[in-house]
Design a protein that fits this description.
- The protein is mainly alpha-helical and 189 residues long.
- It contains seven helices and two strands.
- Strands 1-2 form a two-stranded antiparallel sheet.
- InterPro entries: Timeless, Timeless_N.
- GO terms for molecular function: DNA binding.
Amino acid sequence: GLWGALTALSPQDWEQRQEEDTLLIERILLLVRNVLHVPPDPTEEQGVDGDASVHDRVLWALHISGMDDLLKFLASAQVEQQWALHVLEIISLMFRDQRPEELAALGQGTAGAEHGEDTRELEALRQRELAEKRARALQRPSRHSRFGGSYVLQGLKSIGDRDVVFHKGLHNLKSYNPDLGKEPRRGPR
């Protein structure tokens, strides 16, 4: 009855809704709030450990009916701000029996397993990438740079009263000759 009437109103129809539709929505939200507000009765709920409580079964029924999606829509839609307090109260009653530590641990349990799996996948991808990089490095021809560095020889003057700049490696310094690298001058025959 009431739930069918509420779900029959699509979000587009809600913009043109009548006053009786608004009253109907408010009554449904108040009914859901009142149902969730009923405190648990331990004498009535004597089930086996692990059995769902009456509150949990009500929450499951709300989920199956799609009421949770409707609550999400009412909470997030800009034009539906008039229902914000009702929705907030319903959501707080939904989590009434839960302790924040348990909810956080429950979320971390699945997230932790997924995080561990993601970490393993990332590590495997990183190892594969390193292996490919090594293989590419082995395939490349090795080119050695002929640049051994430049050094200034202080105390040894070149042209223009500047220090000599030596462009070979330091191990060649012992055999330094100012004429190194110059073409020998050939005399006439």
